[in-house]
Amino acid sequence: MTATDVYPDIAMQTDDIVSARRHSVADILHRTARRFPAKIALVGIDRTLNYQELDEAADAVAAALYRRGIRRGDRLALLSRNSWQFVVLTYATARAGIIAVPINFMLTADEIAYILGNSEAAAFVTEPAFLPVAERALQSYGRPMTARAVVGSANSADWEDFSDWLFGEGSAPEVIVGDDDPVRIMYTSGTESRPKGALLSNKALIAQYTSCIVDGGMTGDDVDLHTLPLYHCAQLDCFLGPDVYLGATSIVLPAPDPSAILAAIESHGVRKFFAPPTVWISLLRSTKFDSTDLSSLRKGYYGASAMPIEVLREIRDRLPAVRLWNFYGQTELAPVATILGPEDQEDHPGSAGRPVLNVDTVVLGEDNAPLPVGEVGEIAHRSPQATLGYWRDPVRTAEAFRGGWFHSGDLGYFDTEGRLTVVDRKKDMIKTGGENVASREVEEAIYLHPAVAEVAVFAIPHPKWVESVCAVVVPKPGAELDEQSVRSHCANRLAGFKIPKHVVVAESLPKNPSGKILKRDLRNSFAALASKEK
């Protein structure tokens, strides 16, 4: 029985009623622009836009895409560093009902080609620095693009200048995008050999923005600094999206360079800043830290991994006015699920905090039933923030949503006061410098080496990257194998952050009686390997 069976008047809704009740990601920008047209929305390297200008730019690009034949439901791939153009494209695609596909710019051409093919992208936008790898990816993709542009000078007849999309005749198409219409496909590294495309809807993103605003202490007075890649939903949807919703000001830098971050905080009076622990550590170690005026900074956020307690104490001592929040979640939750607030940072280090406003989180046992306090099980969620599913992958979608919960793949437990602690990654995810690396993907690449008989890839603690990729390899009988050979082999097949930082050649791998490799034993054996580096 459907809602219209119980409430027949629902079926009588006209297009006018639907239009009047619209509430999409693009509508949020439009409303903020009406409320605060002259307020600074976005400060980029070479351009500053107020909210009216940002709204008009999104309209112009949406119209340009429509003129070029890109229609509602088509996918636009975006391979670029952070820029004001990236933000414009994010809202332009949402306005036209086009599904944006942000791509990690550290991927290889083959990895990008897979995403283009899986998403069946009809448009492609990149920047000059990534044009060569984009061209190689398109050759592998093997299908024509309806539209493609470069943010900057393309010097190629095959690519338009993105600035041309900001001007032209016509207006943006009038598209009413519904709650459960998809806005983006966010490719997650996952634990499989190929990434999965998590489909995020308007409803998911807006519910996520609300959770972040309420539990993350965000306001319209914030001046926020965005330095982590916007292809990650952490920076894009935990911070940029809520900023636009509230009418806050966003400073956008292309990369998390410590000197540039410190300079931006001082020059723009930044009040709010997010980074993984690795970046916070790099700021504390900068020779410019003590000579920079950081008095405007009031809110600090971290995620991707727990902050080492000694670093927490150092931030408290050197930035006493800054309150800290720890965000935990995953792409499929758009992405925040739990937050550890400022009041719990020192008394509960390592905790992921409590479920946010719009998320119900439990720890499940093997029977899919909730476990008592203190017992370790799989972390699962119910929330409007959850993905619609994996793009064109019903099998993995059904597996993730079994029993009416979204299964995270992480293991954890709750304490008596409702705080969650994440104790392990169920499927051997490695998080290095804020990037996700699937151990299986790296293992499959190494197995292509002609001298490798066996390999196990896992995470070990690292003083800078929090975790680093470590591989233990067993050579084939009579074969010669060394660390450099394995790393060079990987460099031709994997993005740089996925290449093992440590390769150990061994005679055998530890296994249980059933033949399963004991990665926990390997982690323990090589836990101190990175600490021995100079």
Write up what this structure looks like.
The chain has 534 residues and is an alpha/beta fold. The protein has a domain at 429-532: GMP Synthetase, Chain A, domain 3 (2-Layer Sandwich). Helices cover 31% and strands 24% of the residues. It has 16 helices and 26 strands. The strands form 6 sheets. The protein has a 9-stranded mixed sheet, sandwiched between helices. A 5-stranded parallel sheet has the order 4-3-5-6-7, covered by helices on one side. α11 links the parallel β12 (272-274) and β13 (299-303). α3 (25-35) runs parallel beside α9 (233-246) and α4 (51-67) packs across α5 (84-96). The longest helix is centred in the first third of the chain and has 17 residues, at 51-67. The protein is globular, with a radius of gyration of 23 Å.
Summarize the structure.
The chain is of the alpha/beta class.
Rg over CA atoms, rounded to whole Å, is 23 Å
Kindly, what is the distance between the CA atoms of the first and last residues, rounded to a whole number of angstroms? 66 Å
Query: What's the overall geometry?
Result: globular
Assign a percent range to the helix content. 25-40%
Number of strands: 26
Average per-residue pLDDT, rounded, comes to: 92
Question: Treating each run of at least 4 consecutive H or I residues as one helix, how many helices?
Answer: 16
Keywords, separated by commas or semicolons:
GMP Synthetase, Chain A, domain 3; 5-stranded parallel beta sheet; 534 residues; alpha/beta; 16 helices
